[in-house]
Task: structure prediction
Amino acid sequence: MRNVEIWRDISDYQGMYQISNQGRVKSLKYGKERIMRLSYDSRNYLLVKLCRNCISNSIYIHKCVYDHFNYHLGNSGIIKHIDGNKCNNNASNLVRLSNSSYDTSVTIDGEVWKNIDRFDGYYQISNRGRIKSLKLNREKILSVYVNAYGYHVSTISHNGGVSKVFMHKEVYKAFNGVLLKGQTIHHIDGCKINNSNDNLVILKRSEHSKEHNNSRRRLSKKEAIQVKMLLKLSVYTINEIANKYGVDHITISRIKNTNTKVSLGI
Result:
């Protein structure tokens, strides 16, 4: 059962903003409650921008949740997401550790590991989206990075070669079987780095495209013009602008490649 959502005032912003133990932020300004829109940084951590006395400040959601709900667990070391999913900023998913022992000491309830067949038993993938090496008779959780399209990728070596593996594909194949021609993997909650098996489902390519078109946030006319201006400055990347406005890179690319004023009828 989902835990009860608890709200607390954010330090230095009492009476203005609150953070919940589930990683949501709301504004209390002007006597109205409003859930705040979050954005991603270049490492795929979630941020929220708060404003006080006309000064804006961006804060990390995982740090804010930990500081307001898990402070009793200690204040030294690095805050880690137990399940490896940076979208999951629930207080129960955050732990602060002082060293790299995070990789082997933290276990996840219900996590199951299976061999990645083509690597001769040297690598395993879990149903929670983690990957580990079994080389030299030692278990080691491998690091992943977010590629240009927002997917989790890990680089592994085998038989003198190097391979890039997509986490969502490896999880699905290990626990559900191979993909058929014309099929693609869809993240149910829309978060491409939440590669838990229960968050993955197979769709036809046409269905997948339709799903993303239906769920894609539409920019207002004003926002589209702002995006066009940012693109002309050539200071920000397409992904950075997409994160700023809470849309995907495809939306920004379409604005870049079209006449905004004509397409908006203005």
Observations:
- The chain has three domains: 7-71, 107-213, 221-264.
